[in-house]
Amino acid sequence: MTTSRVTIKDVAARAGVSKGAVSLAFNHKPGLSEATRDRIFEAARELGWAPSTTARTLAGSRVDVVGLAICRPARLLGLEPFYMEFVSGVESVLIERSCSLLLRLVRSVEEEAGLLESWWRGRQVGGSILVDFRLDDPRVAAAERLGMPVVAVGHPSLTGSLTSVWTDDATAVTEAVRYLAALGHRRIARVGGAAALGHTATRTAAFDEAARALELAGAWQVTTDYSGESGARATRSLLTAAAPDRPTAIVYDNDIMAVAGLSVAAEMGLSVPADVSLLAWDDSQLCRLTRPTLSAMSHDVHGFGADVARTLFGVITGKGPGSHPVPTPVLTPRGSTAPPRV
Amino acid sequence: MTTSRVTIKDVAARAGVSKGAVSLAFNHKPGLSEATRDRIFEAARELGWAPSTTARTLAGSRVDVVGLAICRPARLLGLEPFYMEFVSGVESVLIERSCSLLLRLVRSVEEEAGLLESWWRGRQVGGSILVDFRLDDPRVAAAERLGMPVVAVGHPSLTGSLTSVWTDDATAVTEAVRYLAALGHRRIARVGGAAALGHTATRTAAFDEAARALELAGAWQVTTDYSGESGARATRSLLTAAAPDRPTAIVYDNDIMAVAGLSVAAEMGLSVPADVSLLAWDDSQLCRLTRPTLSAMSHDVHGFGADVARTLFGVITGKGPGSHPVPTPVLTPRGSTAPPRV
DNA sequence: CACACTCCCTAAACCGTTTCAGTCCAGTCA
DNA sequence: TGACTGGACTGAAACGGTTTAGGGAGTGTG
Known about the structure:
The structure is a homodimer. Helices cover 44% and strands 17% of the residues of chain A. Chain A is built from 13 helices and 12 strands. Chain A has helices at 8-15, 19-26, 34-47, 53-58, 74-77, 81-96, 109-121, 138-146, 169-183, 198-213, 228-239, 255-267, 301-316, and strands spanning 65-70, 100-105, 127-130, 150-153, 163-167, 187-192, 218-223, 249-252, 277-281, 295-298, 323-326, 330-332.
């Protein structure tokens, strides 16, 4: 049984002031004596009142909701530790601005572009976070046209004039390949993520370049859908070649596929790392739970999410477009990488 | 460059009707001729107008947002495939009602109870989904007091008068233990989840009861925080006992801990399933990626989320409280369970 | 003493919808 | 013909805040 909703008017009456005064107090704006201010807060506390964000939004002040749409098949989403960790990072900074996160799962970037427009026109969000950029992503044009504050998580080459936050995938891939080469590997493969994704293309190009620069004897790349099954299938196909033509090291684009690869190697009677070295990406707890433990290119996804959120607030408050690189993933060697058996 | 926002007034003007008429048309309410209706939609299409949800909410119609607060340490969240899959199930039904999900990570259920109140008072959400019930959970009283439409994901014994959706954990645990006993195991352990959680208590009680009923020679239970590290630690401690006193089968409360357990067994030179059988819970893709593959108590988390969302809509539209069991997890035997070595 | 200048605070307009009491009009019936 | 009915549509009042022009009181100045 709720008593009829308490509004700003009740608070004003109780404090013996006008609605406007209450509004000023709650927005920490000048023009009120300290005594009045206190009286207002006291009244609000007694009545258990907090301003209605809906009314506040309608009246034209800021919108304290930020949007995040994710476009991946539901089946794969659950398994990617990345997103939840990213979201928790985003939340950590939203919370201190008392903002909320509007989360939406979509089936295509086109749908997401439409969603963005309706969010923005309907003033449902004050800004949005865009992830998983494709080449020629329609969201870039949509956000630019709407003049909507967004932060694009992806390399500036993919995100047009939008403010972007990105990890240097090219350098990370290069470092991964160099590391394996330094261990003595000459035949290296990479099991990539979704081909449609921009950062997959970046990594693919960087891998090619690194392989060329190091004059590797063999370099393979395949793209997948990030699922464990795909990772297993890709690994199986890479490892069926006879020993001299087989890769001696495989780099994966996430850790799920690396775990799957580990399992396939065992199934094929190959020992890791003696017969084949495995290197994961997006280092989550999972990499420390396997036998052997998985070496990985690890980065701080939580902190990444926080950076993105902070950058979005910058854009919302009118900061011009910019490009914000975050620290490159660093190599964390564990038990799955070693020099190849001679 | 956005042109000044287009509102219902513009649409009304263009269609040559009043604002009220446009409202009627867009809410599919009677009182308008077919011709007028068409004219209105046409005008709206030309202007690219959609009603502002903010104004709509303020004007007192329904709120098309549902809340979900999750209370687990950020570090663990990322790894639990459960939540993202659950969320994707929830979304699948929200989408067809064109609703959105307001997601919030909180640090305690007390904080969540407060959040619930501010969400409800501020009309930010039309209802909420409550997960991870504790014993004597403060959210029950909060939701009851506010008269807020919520669905509680948890056993009715924990959720007071709230509408609940729940899996029959007791039966599932019993089935798991029976299965292992049927294979010939007489010494069985369980590595449970967080002790504070209601369903952990349910499972613990059911395990005790099953062990008693089957007159097992040994039964162990520990609670953890669901993390891989904890799972590993618990497993290590269970398996250090000398052979005759050691459990020959271990049941885990999620799959991350089971994976960790598998790795610990290998580290201790024990073979799975010959020396020890392992049974996971919350069957995700992960269980098929290990060597051996993990047997699990599996259930359809996506469908579960969808059920919960549908139930919430029922509550929002005034359906009285109820208790909705969903299918009990079923045993999916794979490579990690077998009769004990004699 | 008149004037300007501050400082607090109020009143009213406004945000973009929904809702509801009416108005208007064509049609039916006695 | 006049009374009544019902359908189509309008106008204005909410909804709960923010914003801003301006009013009144107090202080310093010439």
